[in-house]
Amino acid sequence: MSAVMIETFECNEVAHEPIEIAEEASGLIESLGLEGQANYVAKVNEKVTQRCPYRLITAEEMAVYRILCPEATKIEKYDAAPIPLRVLQLAAHAKVVISGVRLMVWDKVKHAVKDPVLVGEIGYEWRPEKTYILARWGEQLDAFATMMAQAAEAVRQRLQHEGKRFIDMIAEATPEEVLTHRDVVFPKQA
After folding, report:
1. Cα dist. 77→61, 104, 125 in Å?
2. Does the reported pTM lie above 0.85?
3. I need a labelling partner for 44 at 20 to 30 A (CA). Which of 67, 136, 151, 158 fits?
């Protein structure tokens, strides 16, 4: 059995800064009016301020991970495989520094677990306003460039399959059925 590899997506400088540094950074963020950075400041309690070391997921990462890991499960319900200790630690920390976060595990359909991803979502469950990428783990973590190629291939295969299915459907349709659905077959050009 091989060891589980873990990749975290935290800013190490922020993740390991002492409380005094976090409070100084928070004061500077406030005095400089850095609205974007203010999103990363969390009041743990009335005396302690921490900065969130987790970044928002990029559009490119979102597309790749959602294609390769389409199954989204709340961390409380995730049972496909044990979650490594370091990932559990990140989840616990994210609950503290990201107000109202919903922790989700994205993985393969039918729990064929290979590189699940832990994310933190803010907002509606069906359409989060923000998604933080926290960690991913597995026996072998593919490079992101490799995963991009895998995602592109998965999309190509699906489009090829759907295209063939569409052509077969049109080939078997009567002229009346084709004319009834002409807007699908011949969309209006802008």
Report:
1. 24, 9, 15
2. no
3. 136
